[in-house]
Structure formats: structure tokens, C-alpha cells
Amino acid sequence: MKFDDEDVFIGIDLGGTNVRVAAITGQGKLINNLETLIKANEGPTEGLKKILTLISQVIDQMQQPIRAIGVGSTGPLDRERGCIQNPYTLPGWEDVDIVSAIGLQFGVPVALENDADAAALGESWLGGGKNSKRLAMVTIGTGVGTAFIFDGKIYRGVLESHPEGGHILIDPNGPACYCGANGCLESLVSGPSIALQANAFYNDSRFLIKNTNGNPNLLDAALVFQGAKNGDLYCRQLVDRIANYIGLGLVTIMMLYIPDCILLSGGVFRSYSLMKGTIENVINRHNVIIPADQVRIDFAKLSQQSGVFGAARAAQLLVNSGGL
Amino acid sequence: MKFDDEDVFIGIDLGGTNVRVAAITGQGKLINNLETLIKANEGPTEGLKKILTLISQVIDQMQQPIRAIGVGSTGPLDRERGCIQNPYTLPGWEDVDIVSAIGLQFGVPVALENDADAAALGESWLGGGKNSKRLAMVTIGTGVGTAFIFDGKIYRGVLESHPEGGHILIDPNGPACYCGANGCLESLVSGPSIALQANAFYNDSRFLIKNTNGNPNLLDAALVFQGAKNGDLYCRQLVDRIANYIGLGLVTIMMLYIPDCILLSGGVFRSYSLMKGTIENVINRHNVIIPADQVRIDFAKLSQQSGVFGAARAAQLLVNSGGL
């Protein structure tokens, strides 16, 4: 390691809604932590200003200089050029050279990572994947994302691309997805897709009608899980189907990575207890030619902090690789 | 490298039918190469004797001592104990400690690898994947197997297990497979499965009836491909369906590995030209969130020799890791 336990790194978690900046030591102690709304629609110039100010505030509260800065950002990114290329969750943020902007102002090396990769790296360093040589992380919320940490490093594909395990095939008769597939995992188990599937039986479900005051536009995945918990038969059946899809997705991930551990995160897994039985049955059924029962399934442990820890870790790895 | 270009390694490719033994230099020159029928049903004692004799014959034809021996064997294996555990393609070969048997006789380190891993390692070293940092190999024949070589080394899962990308999900309404899935890739595109699917239209296909003399038991995948080539509509439709399945399987592999290169091997790919258009269309359709168009699709280049080259390479890597 080319840094000390007490050296300070800045980790930044940039999402579509919030930006969080934390100062974290070489050994992983959180010293300082600030957060603000990014208000992406005000544009990248305003947004960058906000981020730089937040970094300054975090640094000003410390005595010590910082060694490096890491950014975990909602993608797509162009890591080679250090740019955010995001017309989706950060509208108007195209070709935003965040690495140069931060590097020029603070005079330290800056690492840029996809937010899913950063979160998984944080979990691998200090969270639920601490002792896993092969760590897969699966996040199911508005979208479905995966990351893979191998030997403590982010696994990257050709052109340093980020794997997209949220778009592995589950059912070719499933709905069309923007990824080009029909019936990929995201198209079947993301929050919005769960709500869409519940629409089909909305008029039959007294629970859903009652809890949306008869307005199907108020339907969301959380309500479907609540309905299943409260014994609504339609919601229960849908949750079983979703759990089956998730189990099948985890099995395909196992077939290719056979990781030591799969960490689950994201809003849909808040209802894991309602799906656990079905997911485990699917995995057990496939414990034949791969040791599926040896893959630990667990939750991410750092909750909202995995992103800043992972970004700080990316900054450390950048220093170690000589990028300083 | 702890060995020289001129050092000699033995690579062994042990299949259900043949065993092949080759002497290969540190820089990958094939010096010597012998092959014989393994006759697995005569049992492991006879089989091991045959293998040891073949190794001796290869060594006797050379002046030079050998540095190490590598074995690529049809699985399942217990690599930790150096044993073959195979009641399938090597009936009666259970708990066969091939590593000790060879090591004792020749007094050199012995590496044992799954045959799919060995073949991919050979291709990565000297064949179609020579310059690929991330090489996936997909073999479709009697079964469907995959291997993944990352940074020149065999990627292994938990407990050093071998990934089984032949059993990723394609269609949950597909046929049951011994792996525990319904509609995994192997259940839909292996040679036997293609023949099985052709059975459904056998009586409608004049081509198939004519070329099997009316005996549906003579139906095989090669005949289906020949029928498609000769313009038989039923065969053509099935080949299109198979090509679509294969394309979908390659896409799921891309989503998780995003390799530089996917190498194809095995009997079914002898008819690749009949499937190329459909497979490429499927991949192009998914060139959205991953750079699918940057993944080179190519054939394995070492044909029958990839196994012995890969086994010799495994022996070299064992020497390098200090296992001598």
C-alpha cells in the first residue's frame, strides 16, 4: 500500500437526486460526511459548483491534507475521458468532465467509477463482502444493476465497460426493455415493472383499490408487497412470480461467476422476507452442477454509505496503481 | 517466468473416447504427440496404465527431461485432491487420483484442469484468444460448456469451481435439464436437443424421412443442418430458432463478462454459416447498454490440439506459482 492508515481520502456518491461527500481514512474510518440535493435540472455547471463547494466544506473541517478523491456516479460514464455522459438521471449532463474539474481545484488524483461499481467496492472493502474473493452485488429498485468485485478490484469488460447483469435473459416472452431484450431481469422485477404487472389485476384486488383510493396511478411495488403481506391473493401470486424471476436471475449469475457471495440491495429487497422461500427453492433446485449452496446470499451492510466508501476505496486503488 | 522457452512440458487431453499426450516447449512449440483410445469401460486401473505408458513413450522420444505435466480431463473433477470424479463420460472413474499416479511415476509437478478450461487456456495462449484479456469460450456439441480466461488465467468460482455457462436460462418454458433448470442453453441447443426438437416435425419433412430411410432414430443435429442447407423448410425454421437461442445465450454471457472475444467450438458450430445472420442480428439488437459490437466472435483455432496446449500451459503456470 502506498498510503497510510491515517491518510485521508474523499469519497463522493453522485446520484440523480443527492450528492454525498465523505472524508474517509486509509483504514476506513469515516471522519466527515456532508450531503445536499444535486438538482440536476439546474444543469452541470451549477451542479459541479455544488459538488466542489461540498468537497471544500468537508476538507475545511479537517486539519489534514487529502491524498486523492474518488467519485461514484450514476452512469453512463466515459471513464477514459473522466466524463459523465448522462441524459437519463442527470438530464443535460453530457460530456461533463468531472475528473478535470475536481482535479484542477484540489490538485490531487481523481478516480471516476460507475455508482454500482463503487457501492460494490465499498461493500467488498468494509461491508457484507469483506472476505469474498468473488463478490457479486445485485441492486433491484427503479432499475436492476449488478457489479462484480474480483480479488478486491472492480471487474470491467471490454473497453473497461461495466457489466449489466440486470439485463440477463429470464423469459423471451417477457416485456420489451430499452436494453434490446424481451424479458430481461430488469423488465420483470424492477419496481416500475412490478407495478405494471399489478395493473393487470388492479380491478380484482380490493386491497389495491382501497389503498390507492381507486386511483391505479398510485400503484407502486411497495404497495404490492404490502398487499402480499396482508394476505391479498393477487398480490401474493405476483410476489411469488417476482421471487421466482429473481431466483432464476441469481442462478444465471451463479452459473457464470459462481461467486462466494451475492449481496442484495435496493428497495425491492426490503421485502426479501416475503420472497426468501421461493428464491431459496429456486437456488436449491439448481444445486447440481455448480455448488449453488456455497454461494452466500446476504444484504449489503453499509446502507447509504457504501457509495462514498467505495469511491474513497477507488481513490486509494488509484494511488496504489501509481496514478498520483 | 520460472521456466525457459526451451523447457519441455507434457500436456494431456483426457476425453471420454481418446487420450492425447503431447510434449510442448515453454514457448509453445509442439515437439511430439501421441493418441490412443482410452476405453473407459475397462476401468480406471487399465486407463491410468494406458496414460502412463503413453507419457513414457512421448518422453522416450526426446533427449530432454520434462519440467511438469498438465492434464485437461473431462469432469467433474476434485481439483483439490487431484481426482477425477466421473461416472458420466468415464464410467467407473470415481475418486481416481490421477495427479498422484502421474506425479509418482515421473517425479514432476502435475496440474489437473477441467477439459473446457484447458482448451480455453490453450486458445488464450496460442490460439484464437491470444490477445484477449477477457476470453470466453463456448463449446456446443453433445453438451454445452463454457470457460472464461481472465488475464491469462482460468477463472474459477467458489471452491475453485468451474463456471457452467451452458446452463444459463434462455426460456423457462423450455425442456427440463439435469442441471435443475427448464430451458437452459444446453437443453435447447445441444446436438441431442436439436435432434429431439426435429422429431416433432419428422413426419412432415420429406428431407428427414428420405435421409433416415424412414427411421427417426437415425435423426441427428448434423442432418437437421444439412436439411436447412438443402432448403427443407422445417429444418430451416428449427435452425433459425436454434440460432436465436444461441444468440440470446451469447448476449447473457456478454452482459456478465463483456469479454473481448467469444471463441466458438464444438460440432454444432460447424454449421455456423447457417446461423450467422440470426446470431448477429440478436447481438446487434442488444448493442445498447453494453458495447456488444466490440465483442469479437471467432472460432477456436487450435482444433483438436487446444486441450494439450492448454494442459501444457496449466503445467507452466503451476511451475510459475511455485508448485514445483
Task: Describe what this molecule looks like in 3D.
The structure is a homodimer of 324-residue chains. With 324 residues, chain A is α/β, with parallel strands linked by helices. The first copy, chain A, folds into 2 domains: 8-114, ATPase, nucleotide binding domain (Nucleotidyltransferase, domain 5, 2-Layer Sandwich); 128-301, Nucleotidyltransferase, domain 5. Chain A has helices spanning 44-60, 98-106, 115-126, 185-189, 191-199, 206-211, 221-229, 233-257, 272-285, 306-320; strands at 8-14, 18-25, 30-37, 66-73, 77-78, 83-86, 93-96, 110-114, 134-140, 144-150, 153-154, 261-265, 296-299. In chain A, strands 3-2-1-4-8 form a 5-stranded mixed sheet. A 5-stranded mixed sheet of chain A has the order 11-10-9-12-13, sandwiched between helices. A 3-stranded antiparallel sheet of chain A has the order 5-6-7, with no helix packed on it. In chain A, helix 3 (115-126) packs across helix 10 and helix 7 (221-229) crosses helix 8. The longest helix of chain A is centred in the last third of the chain and has 25 residues, at 233-257. Chain A binds chain B through residues 76, 134, 146, 148, 150, 156-159, 161, 163-165, 167-173, 178-181, 248, 251-260, 285-291, 294-295, and chain B through 76, 134, 146, 148, 150, 156-159, 161, 163-165, 167-173, 178-181, 248, 251-260, 285-291, 294-295.
